[in-house]
Write a structure and sequence with these properties.
357 residues, alpha/beta, 12 helices, TIM Barrel
């Protein structure tokens, strides 16, 4: 089956191993996107929180700097009318030549969503997201204006003159709660999961797929994972130790670590539960940073040579993961390293499995 390699966008040249270097750096964003395209990544995730720069404007900037790289643009329902959002994404799809993907972010944290004035419960937000996706698709495909009245949205004469280049803009969806899985299985094209052990990931994939089958659907599965590779296994683990030392040094200095989670973030519970299994799980799954930061950072990584990491990723591929969202700790340098060593090995391994299948 096809395997998509996805990168993680940064708004400036900073990661967990050093303090923030600015908030928004257009020149770095351009160079970082070009590096992803040259390295052979298929797509790049442009994230969203209650404080980060706008993802759609950033994607337009990236689109102008690249010719092939696709997007996975995080988007939170509830702040832009779905009719308008549909036109915004369709316009960007036209500008980029059909490279848009929308990652529906319902928001696991009530604390963060309330920063933007959203006081719905998580279950209410997931129901709204489900309805939002239906409206997006209807606006993208309808050949005439239509009226709509649902639980969260109502409009008359909804329509878009501009349509996507793609037959269907792909919808990504995340969340492991019962409601997230129930509703995502009904509407997502790709279900996005975070890092976990093979056993944990396999159980989650099976659970989601079983729910999707009830609706006659078979969505793709995307898994995010940090990666640390070295020329030898010993060199890779030494690199991991250096990353951990840098993170703890930044933390000891009281500086901002980057993509930190606020107190009470629900994902922290799962990250700490994984870290409780040990610093090394499944041979090369490393939770050292999660342990050292007591869950402030979720940075579970695969550590080893490019060949060893590829073997580990193929184990996830064998249980149904067909997309890998991979990033390291050294931003653009890691992107180039992955393009030189890791991505070609992943492609070859997938092709070999498909040929044998």
């Amino acid at each position: 089956m096809p395997c998509e390699i996805v990168g993680l966008h940064y708004f400036a040249n900073s990661s967990e191993i050093h303090p923030k270097r600015g908030v928004f750096d257009p020149a770095f964003i351009r160079d970082y996107a070009i590096a992803h395209e040259e390295a052979g990544f298929d797509r790049i995730l442009i994230g969203q929180t209650a404080t980060w720069p706008d993802g759609l404007a950033t994607a337009a900037h990236v689109a102008a700097a690249t010719s092939r790289l696709k997007f996975m643009i995080a988007h939170r329902p509830g702040f832009v009318a779905p009719t308008m959002a549909a036109r915004m994404f369709a316009t960007l799809d036209q500008i980029s030549g059909g490279r848009v993907g929308v990652h529906i972010i319902t928001g696991a944290s009530d604390i963060e969503t309330q920063c933007d004035g959203d006081f719905l419960t998580k279950d209410e937000r997931y129901r709204r997201s489900r309805e939002y996706v239906d409206i997006l698709r209807a606006i993208w495909t309808s050949d005439r204006p239509f009226d709509y009245e649902g639980d969260n949205y109502r409009f008359n004469g909804g329509y878009a003159d501009v349509k996507p280049v793609q037959d269907a803009i792909p919808i990504f969806w995340g969340g492991a709660s019962d409601r997230a899985i129930e509703l995502g299985a009904q509407c997502a094209d790709i279900y996005a999961v975070g890092p976990g052990t093979l056993e944990q990931t396999g159980a989650l994939v099976s659970r989601f797929r079983a729910e999707a089958v009830k609706h006659g659907r078979n969505p793709g599965i995307s898994m995010s994972m940090r990666v640390i590779i070295g020329e030898t296994e010993e060199a890779a683990w030494a690199k991991a130790a250096a990353v951990l030392e840098a993170v703890t040094g930044v933390q000891a200095g009281g500086m901002t670590l980057g993509r930190e989670k606020e107190a009470g973030d629900p994902g922290t519970r799962d990250a700490l539960a994984l870290a409780a299994l040990g610093a090394r799980v499944d041979d090369r799954l490393w939770t050292g940073i999660t342990q050292a930061t007591r869950g402030r950072l979720h940075a579970t990584a695969l550590v080893g040579t490019a060949e060893q990491v590829t073997q580990s990723l193929m184990a996830y591929y064998d249980i149904g993961v067909d997309r890998f969202l991979l990033n390291g700790f050294y931003t653009i340098d890691d992107v180039r390293l992955f393009g030189k060593e890791l991505i070609p090995m992943i492609r070859a391994a997938v092709a070999d499995r498909d040929a044998r299948a």
